[in-house]
Write a structure and sequence with these properties.
heterodimer, A: mainly alpha
């Protein structure tokens, strides 16, 4: 899934470049200054709807963050530096994306397995085991 | 005695299963010899960035510790404890990549994602930039996610050198590093001041990262990044337009006009450049020049722009104080 997403992102970047080079924009008329992001990414048709969704997303994300033990006072700060794109996928990431933590609580059953795989350089779970090259 | 024999048999069985499972990882990865960019960087010999500060991690908190190392390298005074409040998720007992990226942005750093190949990581380190990486120290079916900072490497010793968990400058055999890094989709980023071009930088990802600064309100950092991009890749319209857009957002109308004029003189067929120029000119009370620019945008792309600019009610400057425009289509 994650591979798929990164693949899609690459495709979309290529598409964006192609569009910039060939058509130089074709969509409904807009009033106002054209944003830099629109020159970089595919032109998004309805920005108004997006900003509305964005507001809802923000509220939901805030609630999820609080439920995950983040201090209420920090919540606003933390989502402020997210781009709209990041915010859109943030809720899902909160639930699913890998969260770096370092090594903790290795189940005893796996002890032996990881000692061996660590020695084979396949994993690096235990700091005290140096793998054999 | 028989009980011991059974135990030995079990251990032998587990070992042989593991050996079969792991043969896929057995081939030794090789060191790249060509740097990822055409710079005169030598990645065939070792490099160590000895000035990258080290902060040991507390329980579960490799994210804040690794981020602190990246920020302090760039002179941002950030303590691990304060970063815990910015990026640590108690409910997940860990840190998300996206939050590390967002937090670095809040310190006015440009976060540039590296291509997922070892040569890019080595090239950045050789150029003096520490690299934040994600690793999965366990297996896909039992992941142990981890953040660490690559501060060096030595092909002669076959090691990658990282500030990781509680170990300063830990030497990891290349095979162990590659296995754990690949299991985290080879995620790697550099975090640099926006006037500093990453050694492996390419136009579109760099400009996208600059735009991320712009949309999160880091306007002067974004401006510096666009300036960097414009001098590195003058053929990128977004770099020039971006500078104009930032001036416009900061209500520096005259600067905006100048940047947009630069944009349309370099990219005369760029309708959005003419459109934006029209709006900036209107703000500087150059209404007739503004109308001309808007007219040009509409001629270049009549589906997107219509020739209809809201008239500015204020003073009208005399024409000789306003720029003369040359639309590429008549």
């Amino acid at each position: 899934m994650k591979k798929m997403r990164s693949y899609l992102r690459q495709v979309s970047i290529v598409m964006a470049i192609l569009m910039t080079m060939t058509t130089l924009w074709s969509s409904s008329a807009v009033a106002g200054v054209v944003g830099t992001g629109e020159v970089l990414t595919e032109q998004r048709a309805d920005l108004d709807r997006e900003s509305l969704i964005n507001m809802l997303e923000k509220q939901e994300v805030k609630e999820v963050l609080v439920s995950m033990g983040v201090d209420q006072a920090q919540v606003e700060d933390r989502i402020q530096s997210l781009t709209p794109g990041e915010l859109a996928s943030f809720k899902q990431q909160l639930a699913e994306a890998p969260a770096g933590e370092g090594v903790v609580g290795v189940i005893v059953l796996f002890l032996l397995v990881f000692i061996i795989t660590d020695m084979l350089c396949a994993t690096n779970v235990f700091p005290f085991i140096n793998c054999i090259r | 005695m028989p009980a011991l024999a059974v135990k030995q048999q079990i251990i032998a069985a587990i070992t042989s299963i593991l050996v079969v499972l792991l043969t896929g990882c057995a081939s030794a990865p090789s060191w790249p010899t060509q740097p990822a960019s055409d710079q005169a960087l030598d990645i065939t010999k070792g490099h160590v960035l000895s000035d990258v500060p080290f902060f040991p991690q507390e329980r579960y908190q490799c994210g804040p510790a690794a981020l602190a190392m990246m920020l302090n390298t760039q002179g941002r005074d950030a303590k691990v404890e304060s970063l815990v409040h910015k990026v640590y998720l108690p409910g997940r007992e860990g840190t998300l990549q996206v939050e590390l990226v967002a937090a670095a942005r809040s310190y006015n750093l440009l976060v540039y994602p590296l291509k997922t190949q070892l040569s890019d990581v080595l090239t950045e380190v050789a150029a003096g930039n520490p690299v934040l990486v994600m690793q999965n120290l366990g297996f896909d079916w039992w992941p142990q996610w981890h953040f660490a900072v690559v501060i060096g490497f030595d092909p002669a010793l076959d090691v990658v050198i990282l500030h990781t968990d509680t170990r300063r400058a830990n030497q990891q055999p290349l095979r162990a590093f590659m296995n754990t890094w690949q299991r985290a989709d080879q995620w790697a980023v550099v975090m640099l001041p926006p006037d500093h071009l990453p050694a492996t930088a390419e136009p579109v990802p760099f400009l996208t990262a600059a735009n991320d600064l712009e949309v999160t309100g880091r306007l002067s950092a974004a401006d510096a990044a666009y300036r960097t991009a414009a001098s590195a890749w003058p053929a990128q319209p977004a770099a020039w337009l971006g500078r104009g857009n930032i001036a416009y957002q900061q209500e520096r109308w005259q600067d905006a006009v100048e940047h947009y004029q630069q944009t349309v003189s370099r990219f005369p067929s760029m309708a959005s450049g003419w459109n934006n120029l029209a709006y900036a000119l209107s703000e500087t009370s150059c209404q007739s020049a503004a109308n001309k620019a808007m007219d040009c945008a509409a001629r270049l792309d009549d589906e997107r722009f219509d020739d209809n600019l809201k008239a500015n009610d204020g003073v009208h400057r005399p024409a000789d104080q306003c720029p003369e425009l040359h639309c590429p289509v008549d």
